[in-house]
């Protein structure tokens, strides 16, 4: 198995762990949001029957706390989903094996059309294998 395949399997396993760890908190956050929406924006409706609870003053610090309390569990859950379904951008950035590069200096040759490396000037190896379109055209004849 190639390094990139192993790396993707490990990322998927990490994604499953993140989803499993944060699923309950994610569901609670969504349930809280739905409760706030249904109740017409009353954030503290559930505390009204508690005699020891005093409603906080409307302060920006309370709004920030509630925002992070809501977003906190959602971010790891969504990142876990991203890892579970491939994490393509992350994998390509960490293991760039599918991108062409100079064998001498490692310069990325993604946008280079010449047969020499623009960084070190050595001649780049060319593949003598026919392209897919050439192969399919010769099979049709």
Order of helices and strands: HHHH
Cα-based radius of gyration, to the nearest Å: 27 Å
| SSE class | mainly alpha
Largest sheet: none
Helix amount: 40-55%
By DSSP (H or I, 4+ residues per run), the number of helices equals 4
List the helices and strands and how they pair.
Blueprint: H1 3-38, H2 60-84, H3 88-94, H4 132-140
Helix pairs in contact: 1-2
What would you say this structure looks like, in words?
This protein has 141 residues and is mostly helical. It is built from four helices and no strands. The longest helix has 36 residues, at 3-38. The chain is elongated, with a radius of gyration of 27 Å. The model is unreliable at 129-136 (pLDDT under 50).
Summarize the structure.
With 141 residues, the protein is mostly helical. The protein is built from four helices and no strands.
